[in-house]
Amino acid sequence: MYGLRVAVVGGGLGGLAAALALRQAGHDPTVYEQAEVFRPVGAGISLWPNGVKVLSSLGLGREVAALGGRMDWMGYADRSGVNLTEFSLDPLYEAVGQRAWPLARADLQDLLVKAVGSERIHLGRRCLAVESGADAACVHLDTGEQVEADLVIGADGTHSTVRSWVLDEALDHEYVGYVNYNTITPSDEEIVRLGLWRTWVGNGQRASVMPIGRDRLYAFFDVPQPPAEAAEADPDPKRTLLSRFAGWAPPVDRLIRSLDPARINRVAIRDLPTASRWYRGRVVLLGDAVHAMAPDLGQGGCQALEDGLVLTHYLTTTDRSVSDALSRYQAERLPRTADITRRARNRAQMTHGQDPLALQSWYQSLKRETGEIVVAGLIQSVASGPCR
Ligand SMILES: Cc1cc2nc3c(=O)[nH]c(=O)nc-3n(C[C@H](O)[C@H](O)[C@H](O)COP(=O)(O)OP(=O)(O)OC[C@H]3O[C@@H](n4cnc5c(N)ncnc54)[C@H](O)[C@@H]3O)c2cc1C
What we know:
alpha/beta; FAD/NAD(P)-binding domain; 7-stranded mixed beta sheet; 6-stranded mixed beta sheet; 14 helices; 39% helix; binds flavin-adenine dinucleotide
């Protein structure tokens, strides 16, 4: 099918990439985003090779590489700074034919907005409701506009409005046991050498720095907290980090002291149970709207990118019906994302100490890790996806 009028609700990573893929395939997408101006939530994002491959297939490979940080090595140290393991990521890149590019979310969003074209993006439009008949669907916006389309895509994130129409069941978020603090800060070789993604672990906590473009670091910290504490705002995140990481290795202390408190984001990590269906009539979901997962495998955004590409592929390569394309899309994407969501949750709980014995055994296993197990898992994430 060609020339479908598609209303995309949500201009995050998933919605923008889907709009770009649809436009390139000869469809007619328009994005409706509730924000008045684009302000990405969160500081950085690690785009693993499967996510980069999607963007490369949309013609953005060179730009992503220019914005990304060169990440050649991965390493873990304990809280006092003693090295547990360090290994090259080259075997991954060689096996899958593509580097990972961690980058600032703002840079990625700018890139996608330019690629989609601002004339196709309507800001300050919040979707209040959607509905669908057999031949068309409609989006009701808070401006009073009603947008008719051949297809509506709900790319409106983890608190999706569109999802409540598509599903009969309500999906409740589940807190996975820790709070993440994240920010961007200038590179500093006294914190970490160039090209190394370094993580310090102890007590179920982690402090981590990943290289991103323009000589900056994406810094993030995981702190297990009881649900009630996690749900409250933190008036002074820098003080929390100084206190929770007191006595850790000197680079961690130096890192936290260097942070601008006004630029520290805080998010209690929650995921969603797997939805049993992804579309209803001519309304379909993608990204966090249908598979919000813990960030412990760095795959949520990459999966949103894959969704848009696969959805576009089926819309373009069937001449039967929209519903035929949507059912093929769901059949391909649901099992993959359910599996990754489950693995991300297991990893979140294990590495943040829900079971203290499992945590200690993981710390021990890091001392024996040569990179083979980690790299094999990363290769599998790419090899089982749509862009190999
Ligand atoms: C701490 C943390 C770290 C992460 N790290 C990584 C990582 O390293 N790698 C990775 O791949 N993923 C990572 N993720 C996951 C990734 O951020 C998400 O999976 C990704 O942002 C999902 O994109 P999306 O477009 O589906 O949703 P979103 O990015 O949430 O975008 C949804 C958009 O819809 C808009 N919207 C919402 N409701 C409406 C409405 N009613 N009407 C109109 N617009 C609406 C919102 O304003 C927003 O712009 C991380 C997540 C967290 C929390």
